Each structure stands twice: as structure tokens, then as C-alpha cells.
Amino acid sequence: NSPTLCQLYVAAALAPLRSAWPECLIYHYMDDILFCQKQPFESAQIGYIADTLDYFGLPIAKDKIQMSWPWKYLGWLISDSVIRPQKLTISAKLATLHDAQRLLGDLQWVRPVLGLRNEDIAPLLPLLKGTDPAQPISVSPEQLQTLQAIADKINSSWTHRAMEHVPFAIFILHTGPHVNTVIAQWRDGQEGQEDKFYLIEWVFGAINPKKNIELTLEAMADLIKRARLRTVAITGEEPVSIHLPMAPAELEWALANSSPLQSSVLNWSGTLTTKFPSGKLGTLIKTQRWAGIPLRSERPLAEAVTVFTDAGGRTGKALVVWLREGNWHHEILEGSEGDSLQILELMAVCWAFNNWMSSRLNIVSDSLYVVGVVERIEDAAIRSAGRMRLVQLFRQLQQTIRQRSAPYCIIHISSHQLDKGL
To answer: Pfam families of this UniProt entry (predicted)?
Structure first.
């Protein structure tokens, strides 16, 4: 097609220049061309560029040549040390679905430089619901506040230009409901050098997890893979280090127990560390929710309360049974109309956690689904899509578990699979 042919033709015109100046970095998008080298360009070099491109029928207007900063290139404003977008107007006058689509598309373009996190733009996502581009939409007061906050961030945010001879690293941040990643260069002040941190680019995961319940370590692993690929794309090399928001003991535990984290660093020879820089980023790091070792035990707990949960889809009830001082006790929970068996089973487990908050607890369930949920939910992101009743129970269960001070164990008994026994 026409854009591809244009790109290929300009590349052919630039080939002699790339061959003559192998140390010069030459970017081009259609006929927008950026030349970068360590020393200022001499007039003879400018003439050579003009003559070469003119030979291919690509004359350069003198007023289009930018010799000093700030340089403007493909919507970016480049100074001697930082990069920021050129003036970007955020309009709160969104009348149709097409207006919302165009706005979110523009924001997606600048997110890696401005650090617009998933939680920053999440309130705007409901505006994208619909299939007709001309469909009228209305912006809520909360969404107006979000647009203003984004506009303020656009005017005050930037990233650094890469520094020569400073290695690239990946920093995993967990300062809100989502895990985010920064590709950066860090000179940590060793050997008498000044401690310097250069933020190059942000990398974000999906706003909504792919799974209903996504472990934080799974999200970190996914972002490590994304950031490694992006680092190679922009530098040609792997990062020298990956920094995770956890204590050294937790990192050791995570590497031993998380297959996704293990696979994210396959064939990589750098350093996996919990060390972070000081300064402004260090202050931000202190606000992080640090990944830790879960309270959940893989094995049944001794000297603990043991409760049994079950539910009946036909009756619409859930049951919790436990032994206390030689006597059996029970609690019957009434479900709501339309509650599935999974929801009833989750209700029973939530009730058990709520009633033994500070006690060591074993929960025995015959629902493989519920056991899987409890095993993953303590340190996980919850997908907002799906049945709201189920999402609410997930959040209630997660909040209850996070408030616990005592360990717990969830046990699956195959009571409905008689060929396997108990």
C-alpha cells in the first residue's frame, strides 16, 4: 500500500547516508527524518544530507531543518535532556462514542512517556461501551475530574533521554491496584559517582486481568516479559537488572514457588534484586504495597479450628459445620434468587473466614473451584468484568483474608468423586 511504499522509498534514499555515517542514528517515519550524533552537525554534513535526498526527489525546505533544541519530531518535544509531548489538548466536551474512542487512543499513545497508569484512565473506560460511533455519551462528574487530573499530568510529566554508558534496568512498581513497570537507567552512586536515575519509559499491563483472579506475581512476570522485549527493542540489549518490590526473603520464596516468575527470567543473565534508588523514586517506592509471603499454608495446620463447608444448588443454601468442645455446630446461610452453586460455596467460605479472623483455620471444601479461588486471591488482582455478585464476593473474600493475622489452609475433599475416595 501507499504508506509502506513511501516508507521503503525513504529508507532507500537514506541508505547512502547510513553507510557513510555508521555512528549516526537515523530514524524516519515517512518523510519525517531524525539524525542524531554525538557532535553538532557541520554545514558540509547538512549539505550532503540535502544533496542525497534531493537526488531521490526528496528536496528539503531550509525552514524545516531543526539544528538546536527543542526539537519537534512526530508529536514529541525533545530537549537536551528530557522528552515530553507537544501541546496536547484534553477536551471534556465528549458528545459521541467516536469522541471517546479518539481521546482514549490519544492517551494510549502518550502513556509510556507520561506514566498514565491503568488506575488513572480506568474511570474513562465505561465511555467506550457501545458499537455505534455516533452513539451519544454523557460524562459523569467523576470522569470530568479524571480528565482534569490527566490534563494536569500531561502538562507536568516527561521522561529522560537515554544516557550513554549507563546500563538499562527494569523496575517493578506496585503503588496502587495495578502493577506497573519502569524502564530506566540507574547509576547508584558507587565508586564515588553521583546517584542518578533516568526514567526512560513506562510499561503497563492490561487494565482488566486476563483471568478472573490474577496473582500479583503473575502480573509481575507478565510485565517483566513485556519490559524485557521493549528494552531490547529500544536498546538492542537485555536489561542488566530487574528490581522487584519485595524483601530479599520474599524474593527467595517467590522464585522457589512462582512458575510464571521463573519463566519470565529464562535465558537472562542479569541480576534480580530488591534494591531501589533513593530520591523522589525512593519516596514513591516507600508507598508501595510490597509483595510478601502469603498467610496461606500448603499443609493442614495443627492446633487449628477445622470447618467444613458445603452448598446445595437446589435448596439455595450453604452450610458451615465445625467441632467445638466435643459437640458439632453448624450455620445455615440463605442464598439469593439466582445464586449459582459456586456463589453459595463462596458464601460459606467467606462466613468461615469472617468468624475466625484471629484463629488458625483449616477450611475443608468439596468445591475445587472455591479451593482454587482461595489459593490465589490473597495477593491478586480481580477482574471487574463478569457477574457483579461473584466479583463482590471475590472482593469481600480478599479483604477478609488480608485483614487476618493468623495462618489458614484450604483443603479440597473429592466427596463427589467416589472412585478417588476422600
So the answer is: RNase_H (PF00075), RVT_1 (PF00078), RVT_thumb (PF06817)
Task: Determine the topology of domain 305-412 in CATH.
Answer: Nucleotidyltransferase; domain 5 (3.30.420)
Q: What is the tens place of the pLDDT at every residue in 374-415?
A: 998 988 888 876 678 888 999 999 999 999 989 999 999 865
In which region does residue 205 sit, left (phi positive, over 0), alpha (psi from -120 to 50) or beta (all else)?
A: beta
- Per domain, the residue ranges of the chain are 1-67, 85-159, 166-287, 305-412
Letter for the amino acid at 262? Answer: Q
Kindly report, residue by residue over 91-110, the tens digit of the pLDDT: 778 899 999 998 888 888 88
What dotted CATH number matches 85-159?
A: 3.30.70.270
Cα–Cα distance for residue pair 249/293, rounded to 1 Å: 9
Q: Within a 13 Å sphere around the CA of 22, how many CA atoms are in the beta-carbon half?
A: 1
Considering the domain delimited by 166-287, tell me its CATH architecture: 2-Layer Sandwich (3.30)
Q: Which of 370, 358, 376, 379 is nearest to 412 (CA)?
A: 370
Q: How far is Cα 358 from Cα 304, in angstroms, rounded to an integer? A: 11
